[in-house]
Amino acid sequence: VQLQASGGGLVQAGGSLRLSCEASDNMYRLNAPAWYRQAPGKQRELVAAIISAGLTNYADSVKDRFTISRDNAKNTVYLQMRELRPEDTAVYYCNADLSHSEGSHYHEILGSWGQGTLVTVSS
Fold first, then answer.
1. Which residues, 6+ apart, have CB-to-CB distance to 91 below 8 Å?
2. Using an 8 Å Cβ cutoff, are 121 and 12 in contact?
3. Do 101 and 108 contact (CB within 8 A), yes or no?
4. For residues 95 and 21, what is the distance between their CA atoms, to the nearest angstrom?
5. What is the spatial distance between Cα 37 and Cα 46, in angstroms, rounded to a whole number?
6. Distance CA 24, CA 17 (A)
7. CA angle 55, 52, 37 (to 5 degrees)
């Protein structure tokens, strides 16, 4: 079971994109989900995270422009990105702990990473 990120692409500055992240087996719930990004030549950085119900955390550079959210019915986490800037260009990765419970069976995968989706913002 792996995380799958999608929704990246090429957009002009000022535009919007919405990234999605779900497990390859969508019966798995995403716990403590977060989005990271890595620009060329730079370290991977935290962009946004859901700490707990109703509590989120954002990097200063994306506050008021990006919104992380989740759809528990779909076991999917989103990153809505608005007012994109060229400096937002990066590969975006989702990260979460995965869990699945069925009867007495419980399976957990800690610290799973998606394959990354490229966001390119042109000036």
1. 8, 37, 38, 116, 117, 118, 119
2. yes
3. no
4. 9
5. 7
6. 22
7. 75
If pLDDT is split at 50, 70 and 90, which confidence band does 1 have?
confident
Beta-carbon contacts of residue 3 (< 8 Å; ≥ 6 apart): 21, 22, 23, 24, 30, 94, 95, 96, 98, 112, 113, 114, 115
pLDDT (0 to 100) of residue 31: 93
Structure tokens at 20: 């999605």
Helix, strand, or coil here: 86? helix
CA angle 3/31/98 to nearest 5° reads 45
Tokens representing residue 26 in the block = 């969508």
Of 79, 82, 87, nearest to 3 by C-alpha is 79
In whole angstroms, how far apart are CA 117 and each of 30, 45, 48, 88? Answer: 18, 15, 15, 13
What integer pLDDT is reported at residue 75 of this predicted model?
93
Computed over every residue of the chain, the mean pLDDT equals 95
